[in-house]
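As a warm-up, study this chain.
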Amino acid sequence: MPLHRIPKCASSQTARLDQLRADRAVEGLRPYLAQYDCFPEGRDPKSSPIREEELKELVKHWKLHRQRNFWRENTTKDDLVHVLESHVQHLREQEKRRAKFRAEMDNQVTPITPREDELSGAGEPSGGVVVKRDEDDPDLDTTLLRMRVALPLLAMIKKGSDLTELPDECLLYMSRVGMVGAGKINPALHMEGGSRAGRTVVTESDENTRDGKDGASLQGGSVSILGGSGGGSGNGGINGINSGSKEKNARKQTLLKRNLAAGLGNVSYREPSAVLGQSSAIKSLLELARDPDDEVVYISSVALLNLTLTPNDRAQLLKSSGAVFVLFDLTMHSLIDVRENAAKTLSRLSMDPSAQVPLVGNSAHVVLKEMFKQSNRSIDTAALVGIVNLASVPGATVADVVIETLMKLSTDDDEDIGQLVCEAMLNLSILSCSRASIVDVGAMTVLANLLSHEPVGADAHACVAQALCNLSTMRVNQGDMMREGVVRMVAELVEAEPPLVVLQYCAETIAYHACNHGRHEEMVSQGAVPAMVQVAGVDGIGLATNMSISCALAHLTSTYECCPQIVKQLALPVLITLLDEDELVVKKDAVTALCNLLVHPDTKVATIESGVITALVGLSQASDVTLNQVCAMALFNLSCSTEIHETILEQGGVQAIITLLSASANQEVVANCIKAMCNLSVGDDAQGQIIKGRGVPVIVSVASRDSTPLAVRKLVASTLLNLSNLPEGRQSMVSDDAVRCAIELSSIPSKNTRFACAGCLMNLAVVEDALDSGLVPALKDLAKTDDVATLLRVSTAFAFLSSQKKARGAMCAEPGMSMVLNSMMRSGHEDTQVESATCLTNMTTLADWEWGKCCLDDFIVIALLRTNSERTKLLCTKVLFNVLVDPNTRASMINKGVLYALMRISQLHNVYIHQICVQAVFNLSCQKSMHPSLHDNQVAPMLSAMTRVAQRVSMRVDLANALANLSSEGGHEHQLVTEGGLSVFKQLIKQPDINTKLALVRFLANVSTSTSVLALLVADAEVLDGLLKLVKSDVEALLNRACLALCNITCAVAAHKSLTDGGTIETLVEVLSKTDNARTIKLSVKALRNMLVCNPLLSARLLDANGIPVMVKHMTDPQDMETCSHCAKVCFVVATVPVDDLIGRLVDGGILEGLKAMSTVLNDVTAKAETLVALCNVSRCENKHAAIVKSGIVQAVCNLALSGQTSDSAFQFNIAATLRNLTTAEENHATIVRTPGAVKLLVESAKAQDVATREHIAVALHNLCVARDGSGRSAVGKQGGLEVLVTLSEGGSPRMRTFCGLALQSLSSSSPASSPAMAGRLVACMLAIKDVDEDEPKRIVEANTGGNTSSGALLPGRTACCWDDEPEPTWSHHVESLLDLPSLPAIDPSAASESDPAAAVEKPRARMLPHDEPELIAGSFTTMMASTQRVLPDPSFLRSRNEPDSPNTPGAPKLPALKGAIKN
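Now compare it with the structure written out below.
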């Protein structure tokens, strides 16, 4: 084990190297693939990728697939590459051995040149090989060729060389000539006295011969026949026969050999044991069989054939050294009869099982294979028997040659030949070594030929059916068999009405092929189903046949496209009938087939109408485990089709499933029932039946068993989820302990299972009792996953629970709950975030929850950066709002960034988010301590932005109130206005809502207290227009605040023109006319005052608006002295306008009443002085003197004089000036005189210190005294006017003395002097009269405004920001109420993920038949028997050989006639 982990780079490099080696190995096969044309058409052999299909073609070309279980053991492309690479290596080694062998032959073999003595026959061979050149020997060249090959081979053998180094061709040759066999050296090669090669004859005598005894008899000598002629030492036997001439000697030897062969042949025919009992006789016979004389060889071959009659004879013959090799040589003889006898002999030898292995070891099967090439019927038949018998030995099958021969023989109409072919085919189909290799070389053609004969016997039918069945068990055969019409052959067999056993094999053949799903459509199109239906309709068929039929139909129906055709071919009645069988396997297959038919829409109706569901429900009541398994599987398969769920429910399928689950503990039953229930639980009706049928306790108990597999537990979780989707059943499920079960199942480490448990717990969370089962901790554990679907269910459950008070408490008490909710918020999945935020929204209504302390910072980051949907952002906004509700923690929440987050979130385009953010800002603005934080977070721009999108009245009200509240604390007026406050005002002022306008006016009233803001307000005409509109409002509160703001704004002189142009004067007059509110009146009058003080000419606008009577009204009936004072100031300003025409209009407009009111109401000295100035100014209007006097102005002046500061010179001057002006009109004298105190006031005012004042008094007295109406003189006289005038005259200017003298003249007649002294003074005054200016007494004088009058300072309505009707904050929690859970879809088991196969629905699986097994055979292997009759040589052959020059002619030695031969 390495100390350190292997780096990824190293492992990656190793993987790439391995891949490179694999690619190089595949590319190394490309030349062979191109050479043998393995690439299909259209693919370039030089560049096309090498696929598995091309590799398989190369395997077939080299016939590597004929090895047993080749395809089963080599299933992948890498396996095929490895096998092919090994074979290429073998081919290369073989080529090396060939080259080495050729080199050795070139070094060792030299041309053979016979010596002269050898040609003449003289002398003896000195050893080695003696070759006789016989002109009459036609095989001399062949002999020489064999010698050239045999000599070096023999040398190698004697040296002890390794024969495995030889090429395969040399080994094959050596086995044929007897040099090697079964891996051993032939003992005949080491016989003493020399070697054999070709047809050379060497005589080897035994001990008796060496001793000089007669060796003519067979007992005592051993003859080794290796060729034609030879020589040696010895005194007797055949070798002792010599002739003077070579030809005569040769003929003698030939004659002797013929006679010897005939004798041995006669004995072999009569008593074969006599020959077999003597090894020397067998040896001699074998040597004779190699004689160059054809007759000798022929007779020997017949003798050898007769020596194989019984098993004992055959065994004894095989024990003879070299017998098999002699037979091999005979198979290559030039005479067809010899070859035939050799073939028959070998076929007889192959009948014995004990001889088969030695024969195969000596390559007898190879020799027999070569014999098939001779195209002789007898030889082919004999060779066929032999090679088929030897096929039972592994490695001895030569399929291509055997099948080729069988194809020839199968066309023969001979019944015996046909039977032979049938037996051979059956044996070959039984043997595992040949079963997989004969189909692709023509076995199906042989069987088809056998069926083509007329008539076909029952045995032939049976053999063909058994052979088809055996061949079908091999998967490698099925493709070729289908292409060659195996289904049609089976159908032909069935139509022939064969015995029942044949029908059984036919059904099994179809069943085996049906297990290959890739061939289903082809099988159905070729008539497999009608054949099965026909077989099923035969009376008396056995269980095995029914099992095959049911299996075949179960497989064929598994192919979707085949189902309609199967139903059309009347397979349904057969399947229904099979359900009545007692064998459970048949029932299972039949039910599987029916379930498959239920899946197809074109066959579903017909299958259901056949009554399959009712039958299954009835079978579910049985107690047999196997039957329970069948029913459970069938119900599961039925449940896989949602279209028939309603039918299953109607016919009691649910109760059947519950019954099976309750009664059986078998794992297969439980698994299939749970699967079926899971499938059915998708529908509402099925959910109701399962819950009402007490199915929940059953599946809960199944999940609780220790023996329940993990896959079943997963399905239980899915089923509980589906059942929990039914709202009516949730209470019952909680009572049945479904919550606990789901919690236990949630511990399974499976994504789908945890998802199902989360969904189930989510649904059951609506039941309050579920909390007592540990619901919250379980959901918290389920939240520790990265599966989006599971998180969604968990978050939904938490969201629903958070809407319940009890559940909120449990969640609050659960440790780590805060982190779990934040982690789900971080999931990035929109729906999960929505549900988690919903839960947080409700949970933040709890004041004691720890979330705000430990997780708020993280939540703010998530809300701002990790959430995308508006719905999630809205819920996050509600959460942030809720955490600000608690006043005890509000400040800390602000410090954590809640307000900043609200400002950021408010930038989204969502009206609900805007409303919440504005509401939060408004609530915070109601708390003065929060204003700095609001200003720091730039709340004004946020409010301005919200104003542009505000649609709801409540939101606009909150916006305006927030702005007003923020303006209520001084210091930030300029910031509010410049950062968006004016924008808010201008946009919201257009709205009709009163509350909004009230707040806006509050804002304007507060910010207008700042002189720096006034310039901004004045510069914006839109603001002034809006304010004037507010001033015109009929709502008193709005009117009051508007007047306040207007009053503040009027302090800015720059605004006056705009205000005037906008009709402010008229508007204020209107306000004063209609309101009774003292504060509004005061503010309105203030505003008028400010405007008139700055621009008295606006008096005309006031007069035009009929404002004077309004002012008078508020002075004559004062509710507030300050207001009265402001009205007086207005009147004063108006009355002091330096425009005569305007004064006249003012008099007509009622200014006199105002002045009178001022004189009586005001107590302030300054106000009185101003009033007097105003009176004096009004008195300048000469044409209105009558009206002025008539209105009581003189009395007002008297009142002012009595209550004012008489010591003030300006005040005294104005009194004097007013009275002087009024006395210029004589018609007013009477009224003046009648005014109480008026004359007295004149007399007393004459004492003033100011000269101008006394002068005006003197003129006024003059006017009264000189008038034609004597009332004035009388009144003056009565008030002591004489003395006053005298005094004024004495101390005055000339002009004053003149007017005083004139007055005294008039007065002297009515008011004499009181004393002589006075009379003297009177005279003196009269005498002082100088030139009289007649216009002077009529001149109107100006008022003295330099006295004690108020300044023209502008008076604001408010000098500092303040709270007006402070609004109450609305800190109510935002709560997301969930009346019910969202409707989630049920889990569809058919859509389960591949990563969790236990939750996937299994399609109906038919019973698979075993394949590729040696014991899967029909019939039995029987050794094919050859004829064991004794055989005589053909007399015609012997006769043809008995020529006149033959050794048997007269004169030659007479030998006994060959027994059994036909005599001449």
